[in-house]
Amino acid sequence: MNRVRNIVILTGAGVSAESGIDTFRSAGGLWEQHRVEDVATPEAFARDPDLVLRFYDMRRAAIQEKTPNAAHEALARLDAAWPGGLLIVTQNVDDLHERAGARRVLHMHGEHLNAWCVACDARARWRDALIDRPPCPACGARALRPDVVWFGEMPYGMDAIHAALRDADLFVSIGTSGAVYPAAGLVRHARDIGARTLELNLEPSQGSAWFHESRLGAASAIVPAWVDEVLAG
Ligand code: BJW
């Protein structure tokens, strides 16, 4: 760890699983209860906006009842203490990294607690339901949608992610299945630029072979242990 200065951390649904937020692809996960094509594509929203808005209203309400777990807290501790470069790139649309105290967080798949007006392109912090088509605070149009990235849409912050990766000595992937691109491809970029790559997950991800090292276990146990190791130098 002595030579590590810049760290990029990719997190996925597994980091929030022990806070009681469903993952997508595990047994009993969200995609077993809903077809992706029915709720997480722009085409689904155009076809049946009520179904999509209800799905996200339910999840937006649910995450506000959840609290960060030991994995979020450990990453926030690392963020506060690490003197070098650090970026937590999260695919998660919950706000548990921030509520644990992390500051250097980039939400590449958007945020449940943001609404996006497709009429004027404004974004607003949003905690309530969207099903009744509330007016946009900026322009008044009843055209708000969840500010999350659906399949076929461009993830947020790709330039900033690639810039951070260019300087990274260490890339760590935590609690993600490696099933969704471009997030799943970041480990290969990291290896191309010579970073060490580490996976922390309950089970090997689809891209496990790309990592120099994999540590398996529950995020609430293996993430704090890894953070202790990093901070000990
Ligand atoms: C634990 C644990 C515990 C459990 N402790 N661990 C063919 C080939 C390649 C790409 C494509 C293709 N066809 C289409 C594409 C592109 C497509 C894609 O990747 N499709 C795949 C299905 C193949 N991607 C896109 O469309 C993206 N946009 C795009 O590509 O734009 C063009 C572009 C081109 C070039 C550059 C850049 C862009 C957009 C993807 C948007 C994804 N959106 C979602 C929904 C967000 C809103 C919502 O929440 O509803 O994002 S889908 C869903 O999957 C969500 C997640 O962020 C994402 C990843 O899921 P994640 O986090 O990995 O969760 P799970 O459930 O899969 O895994 C959980 C993991 O946790 C498991 O590994 C468990 O073991 C572990 N775990 N408990 C530790 N306690």
List keywords for this structure.
233 residues; alpha/beta; Rossmann fold; six-stranded parallel β-sheet; three-stranded antiparallel β-sheet; 35% helix; binds ligand BJW
What would your notes on this structure say?
This protein is α/β, with parallel strands linked by helices and 233 residues long. The chain has 2 domains: 1-21 and 68-109 and 155-233, TPP-binding domain (Rossmann fold, 3-Layer(aba) Sandwich), CATH 3.40.50.1220; 22-65 and 111-148, SIR2/SIRT2 'Small Domain', CATH 3.30.1600. Helix content is 35%, strand content 19%. The strands form 2 sheets. A 6-stranded parallel beta sheet has the order 3-2-1-7-8-9, sandwiched between helices. Strands 5-4-6 form a 3-stranded antiparallel beta sheet. Helix 6 (70-81) runs parallel beside helix 10. The longest helix has 15 residues, at 49-63. The chain is globular. The mean pLDDT is 96. Bound molecules: ligand BJW. Residues 12-14, 17-18, 23-26, 29, 40, 91, 93, 109, 148-155, 158, 175-177, 179-182, 201-203, 205, 218-219 line the site of ligand BJW.
